[in-house]
Write a structure and sequence with these properties.
heterodimer; A: mainly beta; four-stranded antiparallel sheet; 12 strands; globular; B: mainly beta; seven-stranded mixed sheet; 11 strands; 0% helix
């Protein structure tokens, strides 16, 4: 069975600090896909990024960057120069084919609190 | 934003009563999912649908049933609500059943069973 571990339950930083959210996954598949979602205080889930297992290039989008390392089964998310608006719960997820569809296995989430 | 609505957004019900939650989409996507979110568990898949009248179980399906009679609507029913079903329920849609397609989530329904 697939598993996603987000060991950091809660992180608090001061605005402008850099912060890294860890994600470690387990799967027996050779091809797989990883996702990050953001859940702001308003409650909705917002898709951030998808990464496939055969592309280990780091991805950068503005202040956000993602580091995928197959050797350590990790897909970490870094926010550079954090802002109060980054305060949210962040979920890492792993996609799995079911035969009729695909399903996401989520980690337990990391709550990020950014203060002034 | 994906056109997904959930109703009701909040509901309080008593143990033993039936409850139906509705997910409505305007994207004409074939795949729809129901998840529940609980502290310490993240989101867990309850049921999903891969077409009209085509549904299957997820990892926490006990006590839940679903129906999909048309593309745009996916209903989740708690036949006899229990306190352990107090949770936030999210519907999600996807254009494809392939693993590389992201799922888009609705706003959620907060259900309290007293």
């Amino acid at each position: 069975a697939q598993k996603v571990t987000q060991a950091q339950t809660e992180i608090s930083v001061v605005e402008k600090e850099d912060v890294t959210l860890d994600c470690v996954y387990e799967t027996r598949d050779t091809t797989y896909y990883l996702f990050w979602y953001k859940q702001p205080p308003s409650g909705e889930l917002v898709f951030l990024i998808r990464r496939n297992s055969f592309d280990e290039q780091n991805e950068i989008s503005g202040r956000y960057s993602w580091n995928f390392q197959k050797s350590t089964s990790s897909f970490n998310f870094t926010i550079t120069a954090s802002q109060v608006v980054d305060s949210a719960v962040y979920f890492c997820a792993l996609s799995e084919a079911t035969g009729t569809a695909s399903k996401l296995t989520f980690g337990t989430g990391t709550r990020l609190q950014v203060t002034l | 934003d994906a056109g997904i609505t959930q109703s009701p957004r909040h509901k309080v019900t008593e143990t033993g009563t039936p409850v139906t939650l509705r997910c409505h989409q305007t994207e004409n996507h074939r795949y729809m999912y129901w998840y529940r979110q609980d502290p310490g568990h993240g989101l867990r898949l309850i049921h999903y649908s891969y077409g009209v009248k085509d549904t299957d179980k997820g990892e926490v399906s006990d006590g839940y049933s679903v129906s999909r009679s048309k593309t745009e609507d996916f209903l989740l029913t708690l036949e006899s609500a229990t306190s352990s079903q107090t949770s936030v329920y999210f519907c999600a849609i996807s254009e494809s059943g392939r693993e590389d397609y992201e799922q888009y989530f609705g706003p959620g329904t907060r259900l309290t069973v007293t």
